[in-house]
């Protein structure tokens, strides 16, 4: 086509190229006061080219013109959606597809057709019409699969329709761009399935997308790393620890590339550096969750019916370990892992720093704990309490949880006590400084956790004391002190449930029912554990204990639906409500033998 409407074809191609440059390159430099300046300039040029093509005679070149017009409609559609003019954008993208409709599977149309469907999928997602978006994207996926099955040769890239013959792309470059367009299809589908809560399918598509981005070198290291780290949390929820660890190791390795890639003219701002530090801390938090979940899952496997480590179960699992490891190694070859030949050694080295199999003793648990603790420090470097209160506290809570689960594996009661003391030392200052008016839920979590930790320490001190021939005054003082601190924090938690008039709710909401009942039950038990030589004080403690046990029994009689939340505690409470009055009568008789 030597001339188009009196204008040389080379000039037309130049206008098109300039429009593309304005849209993709120059627009990044537009000022905040005029954010779409380059986009609008690009649109004017595209409209000029469209007018020139409209003036062209069709004849034998009718199909060629139709495809070129479709390219322009596509570019205008993207331009309008980029400038938040969705209705106009949709019209142009629909016209693009209509022009291509007679031959969507031909090599000169298929890539453009898929990209138009991708953009319509995005457009409808932005309108929150997820099902419509799904239809467009699944149609694009089907078109790609059909083309690869029936033809498979690298199709033309849309930009080639406005290039001179000598400028046309190589087959290798065409293939790369076509595969990139299809990768975008899968990427958007993963998000759509996530919105539709088709979580497993979303994870599959996300994994495939990440793998393809690496394969075709079409990724931004930071974005890729964050997506891989997020995917690791899905595998974590399924207890697929090998896959979760692989995603995290790959995320860490790929993220490290971000610091190696110089930005344009080294104009990286302080904000860019801040964003990088935040992303690094977010990946560290995913590692913390990995270590914590692996340890907690192992605890569930190993604990007996009272929450202690079961030695028989431990030996049984150790005997199975060798066989399971062999099977997992075979399974690894079948697992959906990322093909990263260039960074494979780095990923493997990262994986070797932490196990993906359940720890079965203290030493194995400690190795996982130490990895998690290192990531806690890394995450806290960015998420500091000044500026990131909620994030910082969540990280500290995870740190506390790491100590809690490590203590499960520790056989020595004194050392276990010290681990719980570490938890108190990190949680208590935060709890005392937090304003419950603004952070009520977090305050409650911290109060309950502190109460629970003091409670565990008291139980351990009682167990240590039971090994002695006679309790010494120091041990008695320690047991009583721990019990009183536990009572204090349980009471603070229960007080937080009161209304502004300080009245405790008659009916507890479902989200606080169990913790409130457990707090009441534990306070009852704690008053029963207080050691005193003063019989009158002992009687007072027993009376208080009885009142708390009675609360549980009365509440469940009045609201039977609550029973399923606290069956074990209720059974023991009923037993104590039956036993305590008799014990108290005996004690009264000793105090006043003539009454």
TrEMBL record:
Top-level taxon of the source organism: Eukaryota
GO terms under cellular component: cytoskeleton; mitochondrion
TM regions (residue ranges): none
Any one of the GO BP annotations: microtubule cytoskeleton organization
Subcellular location(s) of the protein: Cytoplasm, Cytoskeleton
Keywords, comma-separated and alphabetical: Cytoplasm, Cytoskeleton
GO molecular function, one term: protein sequestering activity
Protein purpose: Activator of KIF1B plus-end-directed microtubule motor activity. Required for organization of axonal microtubules, and axonal outgrowth and maintenance during peripheral and central nervous system development.
Family under the similarity heading: Belongs to the KIF-binding protein family.
Protein's recorded name: KIF-binding protein
Source organism per UniProt: Strigops habroptila (Kakapo)
Gene name of the record: KIFBP
């Amino acid at each position: 086509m030597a001339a188009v409407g009196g204008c040389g074809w080379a000039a037309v191609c130049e206008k098109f190229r300039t429009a593309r440059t304005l849209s993709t390159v120059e627009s990044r430099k537009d000022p905040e006061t005029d954010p779409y300046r380059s986009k609008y300039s690009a649109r004017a040029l595209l409209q000029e080219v469209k007018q020139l093509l409209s003036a062209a005679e069709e004849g034998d070149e009718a199909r060629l013109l139709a495809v070129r017009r479709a390219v322009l409609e596509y570019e205008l559609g993207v331009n309008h959606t980029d400038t938040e003019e969705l209705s106009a954008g949709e019209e142009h993208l629909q016209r693009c597809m209509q022009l291509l409709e007679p031959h969507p599977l031909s090599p000169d149309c298929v890539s453009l057709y898929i990209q138009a469907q991708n953009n319509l999928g995005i457009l409808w997602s932005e309108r929150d019409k997820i099902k419509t978006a799904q239809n467009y994207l699944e149609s694009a996926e089907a078109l790609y699969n059909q083309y690869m099955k029936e033809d498979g040769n690298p199709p033309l890239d849309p930009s080639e329709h406005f290039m001179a013959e000598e400028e046309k792309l190589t087959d290798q470059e065409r293939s790369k761009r076509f595969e990139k367009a299809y990768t975008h299809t899968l990427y958007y589908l993963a998000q759509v399935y996530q919105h539709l809560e088709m979580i497993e399918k979303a994870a599959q598509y996300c994994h495939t997308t990440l793998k393809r981005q690496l394969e075709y070198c079409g990724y931004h290291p930071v974005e890729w790393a964050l997506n891989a780290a997020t995917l690791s949390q899905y595998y974590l929820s399924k207890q697929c620890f090998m896959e979760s660890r692989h995603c995290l190791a790959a995320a860490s390795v790929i993220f490290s590339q971000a610091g190696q890639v110089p930005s344009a003219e080294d104009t990286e701002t302080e904000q860019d550096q801040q964003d990088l530090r935040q992303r690094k801390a977010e990946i560290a938090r995913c590692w913390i969750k990995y270590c914590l979940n692996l340890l907690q899952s192992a605890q569930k496997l190993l604990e007996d019916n009272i929450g202690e480590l079961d030695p028989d179960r431990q030996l049984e699992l150790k005997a199975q370990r060798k066989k399971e490891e062999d099977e997992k190694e075979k399974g690894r070859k079948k697992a959906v892992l990322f093909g990263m030949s260039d960074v494979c050694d780095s990923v493997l080295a990262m994986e070797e720093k932490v196990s993906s199999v359940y720890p079965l003793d203290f030493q194995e648990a400690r190795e996982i704990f130490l990895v998690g603790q290192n990531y806690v420090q890394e995450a806290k470097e960015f998420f500091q309490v000044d500026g990131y209160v909620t994030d910082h506290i969540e990280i500290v809570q995870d740190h506390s949880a790491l100590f809690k689960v490590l203590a499960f594996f520790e056989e020595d009661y004194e050392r276990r006590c010290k681990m719980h003391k570490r938890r108190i030392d990190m949680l208590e200052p935060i709890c005392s400084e937090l304003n419950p008016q603004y952070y009520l839920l977090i305050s409650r979590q911290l109060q309950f956790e502190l109460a629970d930790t003091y409670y565990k320490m008291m139980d351990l001190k009682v167990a240590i004391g039971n090994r002695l021939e006679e309790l010494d005054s120091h041990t008695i003082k320690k047991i009583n002190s721990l019990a009183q601190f536990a009572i204090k924090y349980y009471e603070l938690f229960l007080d937080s449930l009161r209304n502004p008039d300080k009245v405790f709710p008659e009916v507890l909401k479902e989200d606080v029912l169990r913790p409130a009942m457990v707090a009441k039950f534990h306070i009852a038990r704690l008053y029963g554990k207080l050691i005193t030589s003063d019989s009158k004080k002992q009687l007072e403690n027993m009376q208080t204990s009885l009142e708390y046990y009675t609360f549980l029994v009365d509440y469940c009689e009045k609201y039977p639906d609550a029973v399923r939340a606290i069956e074990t505690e209720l059974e023991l409470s009923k037993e104590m409500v039956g036993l305590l009055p008799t014990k108290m009568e005996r004690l009264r008789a000793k105090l006043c033998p003539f009454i």
